[in-house]
Amino acid sequence: MGKKKKKKRKEEKEAKRLAREEQRLAERERELVRVAATSARPVADPAETTAGGDQGSGEAAIERGRRGESGSVRAKRGRARPKPAPRRAPVPAAPLRTEPPADLVDARVPAEPSAAGSEIVDAEIVETGSASRRSRPANRRRPPRRAGGARRPAAGEAPTIADPDNGGVDADDEYRGIEARLNRMLRMSADPAAAERAPDVLGNDGERLAGRLGAEPPGADAARGLRQRFGSGMIDSARELLSSDYYLRVWGRLGMRGRSVEVDEYGLDPKYEEKWRPFFDFLYSTYWRVQTAGVHHIPETGRCLLVANHSGTIPYDGAMIKTAVEREHPARRKVRWLAEDFVFHFPFLGAFMNRIGAVRACQENADRMLRQERLVAVFPEGIKGIGKLYRERYRLQRFGRGGYVKLVLRTRTPIVPVGVVGAEEIHPLLYKPTYLAQALGMPYIPITPTFPALGLLGLVPAPTKWLIEFGEPIAFDDYGPDAAEDAILVNRLNDQVRTQIQDIVNRLLERRRTVLQG
Fold first, then answer.
1. Helix (H) or strand (E) holding 307
2. In 490-509, which positions are buried (b, 16+ CB within 10 angstroms) versus exposed (e)?
3. What span, in angstroms and rounded, lies between the C-alpha atoms of 337 and 129?
4. CA-to-CA distance for 385 and 393, rounded, in angstroms?
5. Do 106 and 124 touch, CB atoms closer than 8 A?
6. Per-residue pLDDT tens for 131-174?
7. 460 touches 283 (CB < 8 A)
8. CA separation, residue 275 to residues 74, 89, 279, 331, 463 (Å)
9. C-alpha span between 197 and 265 (Å, rounded)
10. pLDDT of residue 256
């Protein structure tokens, strides 16, 4: 349930982030369109501007068109000369390209003599982002400008933008240039990384565009100052501490502390098991003072199946059998025991049991482990064994349908019966309400003298004396693998194993003097 909530919360956060990103891109595109719309002024058709027409309005429109292409127009009035200067050689029109045009397009067109006298107007079109600008002589007077920033043409002055044959720039080329610049701006808004290259492509306008698109975040000068003062390492460390990913990585490293990077195919974590080994050694040698007998009956190599009685309300018997074999057996063999399925439905408990060596009980897991020549322990009583009331203690319940017998017949595995005494008293089960357990999805709810009266303290087991005895091996070598399909034979062999385990338990009970001292 917690994983679903985290996943849903993460999806909502990602959706909000994407929505904010889309809104930011939309705002940038609107800003770019607005800047382009204010920069691009309508250009009058040169055909409509004649010598007899309104030259003032026509030249103002041409001047606005020139500002739309270059972003900056400077017109300078020259000194009166006795005769007009010779016409400069016409400059061919530059072809349309994605790169910015030449740094400087200089067009000098002689003007007709006016009432004020003969003048020559030098019109300099300086492209935005040019490396250098032509300086104006000090003796030239700046002509009057309009409120919008464009120069008012003098009376009788001819248009400065003409057709390509005249060496000027055509109005259609200006429109296409503005459209190309706008397309580049829109592409940069879709690709923020391209904004870093904007100053090289678009000049001064590119620098302003890069600022709008976030190529350098606000406060970059302050960040550079801090980096120069304290060093880049400290600034990067502070940025990492303020990011949420840093704390997620730290939490992950803390969660993996004391665990192995890789576990085996059944979930055993060697590093985690080693971490909990002192706890189980304390239970084995000090708290329950386990006394073991007959451990030499377990073969030193090869597959073997340990079949034991189940008890204890909370099943500690699997961990104690595992600890007994590892401590007492000459070969220090590892035991993997099959745990009931309901254990793995509890939070943390299933993962804990899995990491210390328990395996989910099923025919497939048991068959694989035996064919890998492992030592496996099973508890055929299942939940019925750990859920026995105190008055039924040490009375073995029915061993199911003999699934473990079919398994040993198919794999030709020897059986070692195991009897455990002392686990029935650690949590004496007085009552188990059925309806409440079914409502909670549990096999049973234990009612003991200490639980739930003492709360979590009632889950502490009693320090009883444990006795574990390993019986003589039982071999079914006389039967072949096909005998597993004989239901009558399987039930008979199942009862035989159950009887031998019950005899071991009865013998241990007769030998025990008291529950606490054994």
1. strand 304-308
2. beebbeebbebbbebbeebe
3. 78
4. 9
5. yes
6. 334 444 444 455 454 444 444 444 444 444 444 444 455 566 76
7. no
8. 82, 91, 8, 22, 23
9. 52
10. 59
Preceding amide of 315 cis, omega within 30: no
Structural tokens at position 493: 């062999």
Q: How far is CA 14 from CA 17, 248, 383, in A?
A: 5, 16, 45
Count, in order, helices (H) and strands (E) of the chain: 15, 10
> In sequence order, which residues have a C-beta less than 8 Å from that of residue 369 and are 6 or more positions away?
266, 336, 359, 376
Chain centroid, CA 272 distance in Å: 25
Highest mean pLDDT among 5-19, 218-232, 235-249, 291-305: 291-305
Distance CA(338)–CA(32), nearest Å, equals 68
Q: Could you check whether the bond before residue 452 is cis, i.e. omega within 30 degrees of 0?
A: yes
Lookup: tokens for 111: 């003007």
Q: For residue 44, is pLDDT > 60?
A: no
* List of E strands, 355-494: 359-360, 375-378, 415-421, 467-470
> Which residue's structure tokens are 């017998």?
405
Rg over CA atoms, the chain: 46
